[in-house]
């Protein structure tokens, strides 16, 4: 009993004294920071579109993708969209093989009345949607049809699936922390999605597929007897895993801060983005590039291989020293505790990175926690 009381008191004290950084509005000219995969009352979320937009502003986002189950957002709801915080119109489509997101779907789009994943993927593709497999390794609703290649992206990190992977004690720790320090509680529940990374690397051997992180925010857990618990709330949830979209200088008619939802979807589809678990530390300004001869490219870009090609990574200042891992064709090729990396690369291949920071606070035991992952840079043989 004494040990239990001591453990609870320690966790509560930690919640009071560990302060994580404020998650700011991104200020880099070509980088828009947003959250993908959010539910509203139109399906099983607890808030209206207006509530979600207010939370998105509170979480300092610069775009949001609303994806209710089997119901597309309407024209009227999209009108809640200010120019500096566009809504990506989306839907989460349930199929017999699992769920996928259709992003950039026309408002009020009616999906075919079938649960056949191939038909639904084709229908969403026919109207130009960016199709992303949702929580492919979720414990209850995984994706099961790996024989189709008719999709454009996959969720590598899904917050809802990630927190469910914790054991009972970790969940209790986070629940105790949540009331006084929601940011720390949700950071504690982060886990590295090894299955997702492995499957992504396997698919990337065949073709480029964009990897993104998703919140899957409902701001609701259904309890017994028709009761709900609003956990985790919209604002805390929208601060955790944010997709940083890298836009070309011409976006937004020369002002990328005003890039449209369509331009954001286009960049996401091309893999011009990286994910940051910004609650741990804001990843704004993180940079991952390959230079080869006179050309330079970041996530999603293709470059021809030259002998002198180098890979360069720089991380935002202010963190403890991160652990940077670089993968070439799915195999780890560098692993170093450093703030910057500048190394020759051994040949053509797909290069992507995963970057880790230690958990804050004493009960986090400084465990390495996934902080950033990028889409690959594709270095092609001449
Ligand atoms: Zn789902
Ligand atoms: Zn969902």
3D architecture notes:
The model has no long low-confidence stretch (mean pLDDT 91). The protein starts with a helix and ends with a strand. Helices cover 23% and strands 30% of the residues. It is of the alpha+beta class and 382 residues long. The protein is built from 10 helices and 21 strands. Helix 1 (2-17) packs across helix 6 (168-178) and helix 6 packs antiparallel against helix 7 (182-188). The structure holds zinc ion (ZN) (2 copies).
Count of DSSP-assigned helices: 10
Class by alpha and beta content: alpha+beta
Strand content: 25-35%
- Overall 3D form: globular
Please tell me how large the radius of gyration is: 20 Å
Bound molecules: zinc ion
Distance between the termini: 68 Å
Helical fraction equals 10-25%
For the residues shown, what is the average pLDDT?
Answer: 91
The counted number of beta strands is: 21
Q: Strand count, sense and closure of the main sheet? A: 15 strands, mixed
**Oligomeric nature of the chains:** single chain
Uncertain parts:
none
What is this structure's SSE topology?
Elements lengths: L1 H16 L13 E8 L10 H10 L4 E7 L5 H4 L8 E9 L2 E6 L13 H10 L3 E4 L19 E6 H6 L3 H11 L3 H7 L5 H11 L5 E5 L6 E2 L5 E2 L4 H5 L2 E6 L14 H9 L3 E5 L9 E6 L2 E3 L4 E3 L5 E5 L8 E6 L2 E7 L2 E5 L4 E10 L9 E7 L2 E4 L2
Helix pairs in contact: 1-6, 6-7
